[in-house]
C-alpha cells in the first residue's frame, strides 16, 4: 500500500492492484467513522484530496472506478448510508470528481 502521508485519492492513484484499492477503501471508511465519532473538531485533519486536478491518465481513471466499486461493496456489506458517503465526497472532492460521478451513477442504477 502507498505511504500513509498521502491523501486517500493520492493513494488510489498510486495503487497497482485491486487489493491495494480495497485497503484504501477500508482506510477511507475508517477515517470517515472516526470523523463522525470525533465530531467536527477533526474535519481539518482529514484531507481526502489535495485540490490539484490534473488530467486523468488511464490508470488513475481505472483506480477511481475500482475505488468506487469497492466502496459500494463495503457500503452494501456494512449497511452504510450511500447518500452520506456521496455527500461527504462531494464536500471533499467537488461535484465533478470521477469518484463522485461514479458513485452517483451507481446509486441511480
What's this model, at a glance?
The chain has 109 residues and is an all-alpha fold. The chain contains five helices and no strands.
**In terms of per-residue confidence, which ranges show pLDDT below 50 for 5 or more consecutive residues?**
42-47
- Main β sheet profile: none
Query: Oligomeric form of this entry?
Result: single chain
Average pLDDT score: 81
Helix percent reads: 55-70%
Order of helices and strands: HHHHH
Rg result: 13 Å
Q: List the total number of helices.
A: 5
Report the strand count. Answer: 0
Helix/strand structural class = mainly alpha
Strand content: under 5%
Distance N terminus to C terminus?
31 Å
Care to describe what's here?
This protein has 109 residues and is mostly helical. It contains 5 helices and no strands. Helix 4 runs antiparallel to helix 5. The radius of gyration is 13 Å and the shape is globular. Mean pLDDT is 81; it is low at 42-47.
Question: How are the SSEs placed, and which strands pair?
Answer:
Blueprint: H1 8-14, H2 18-38, H3 58-77, H4 82-93, H5 98-108
Helix pairs in contact: 1-3, 2-3, 3-5, 4-5
Task: List key phrases describing it.
globular, single chain, 109 residues, 0% strand, mainly alpha
